[in-house]
Hints:
The strands form three sheets. Strands 3-2-1-4-5-6 form a six-stranded parallel beta sheet, with helices on both faces. A six-stranded parallel beta sheet has the order 11-10-9-12-13-14. Helices cover 45% and strands 13% of the residues. α1 (10-21) packs across α3 (51-60). It is built from 18 helices and 14 strands. The chain has three domains: 2-202, NAD(P)-binding Rossmann-like Domain (Rossmann fold); 212-298, Rossmann fold (3-Layer(aba) Sandwich); 300-434, Rossmann fold. The chain binds nicotinamide-adenine-dinucleotide.
Amino acid sequence: xxxxxxxxxxxxxxxxxxxxxxxxxxxxxxxxxxxxxxxxxxxxxxxxxxxxxxxxxxxxxxxxxxxxxxxxxxxxxxxxxxxxxxxxxxxxxxxxxxxxxxxxxxxxxxxxxxxxxxxxxxxxxxxxxxxxxxxxxxxxxxxxxxxxxxxxxxxxxxxxxxxxxxxxxxxxxxxxxxxxxxxxxxxxxxxxxxxxxxxxxxxxxxxxxxxxxxxxxxxxxxxxxxxxxxxxxxxxxxxxxxxxxxxxxxxxxxxxxxxxxxxxxxxxxxxxxxxxxxxxxxxxxxxxxxxxxxxxxxxxxxxxxxxxxxxxxxxxxxxxxxxxxxxxxxxxxxxxxxxxxxxxxxxxxxxxxxxxxxxxxxxxxxxxxxxxxxxxxxxxxxxxxxxxxxxxxxxxxxxxxxxxxxxxxxxxxxxxxxxxxxxxxxxxxxxxxxxxxxxx
Length: 440
Ligand SMILES: NC(=O)c1ccc[n+]([C@@H]2O[C@H](COP(=O)([O-])OP(=O)(O)OC[C@H]3O[C@@H](n4cnc5c(N)ncnc54)[C@H](O)[C@@H]3O)[C@@H](O)[C@H]2O)c1
């Protein structure tokens, strides 16, 4: 089977490499020439555990190819996946310009009845709009008689565990309209089926909606727990205990109950905005999700507020070590990361920032042109700092040498944005600990 994946980012590269690993002949297409040339030379553009090996192995086995030239490969494919970005536009709608650009290119060159599958996260109805765009271009060159199918196959992988998630997903959701499309998608996913997981077929609109609804539910759990945590702080309860107590109820489940400094990343913020906008356009107010977004925006300020309150607002000229920049561990993705909100507030208040991240330092430089010091390790970041603030829970931050930190820091506050430290433990080393959802 031969497929193309258009858009070689987190989703496109991981999907392409994993399909190749299952024996499919995959061509990954991107407009970014530097990225494609790099990949041909074994340079993986993103940090994602396990990805490099799979890409190199399948490229060497000649099952994985890279090109910037979609028209030249298009008609030798059975399936073309669209996996380009769908960022927010100024109103919060999903910006579909990249998706439609691919549709136009397909329409200009398609002459075999291939299946066009949308993997990008898109508003309900987009796959049909893609079909219209393709047809429009076909009509312009008198090729409108050609019959082709569209399908929706939203992606649920998590950055940081993307390869693992793609190779053994909880489920694969596929929206189709025709038997032909269903059969092709069944054939493509059959190797994964051997691993005993489910492909859930449905209509295209429901498939597109499933992706938004899933992300919206996860974001809701996070904002809900952040609200509970903030109330715990005020009433003297400990959210860590509350979380355990709640999570052991099988109706609730233990996942996604961790309070923190707000959700970020390339998906939740933009998808929540897009679904709110979709509601607006449909004449329906998404009340819960509006609150989810509002709580999240507030929560992103919580680390700065705790730091500032500890020093009674007298923070100008102080130095802070920031551990963790990416929006979550095991990724270099900085899109909408809570660390950005924190660092911008610190800089605005005249605080010196010494930051360290195991993978995202290069990416961070694209977002933070301002004057911050990029440290070589956690101790360098803490050197002569008045406080440590931890927005991201990388494993290597869990057991630092507190004795060294005690010596090299000027004063001894730890603002723990992910509740990875124990307050009594830190107190025994002479540190004041401020977590989320525990009384200060
Ligand atoms: N990142 C995630 O964890 C994740 C998870 C599930 C779903 N998604 C969804 O998948 C989609 C892609 O996300 P991503 O994080 O992989 O994006 P990304 O920004 O990492 O990658 C997008 C790629 O598409 C390329 N591109 C843009 N226009 C193109 C064109 N006309 N032709 C060829 N390539 C083009 C870009 O150069 C870029 O390399 C989005 O809709 C996102 O919401 C992302």
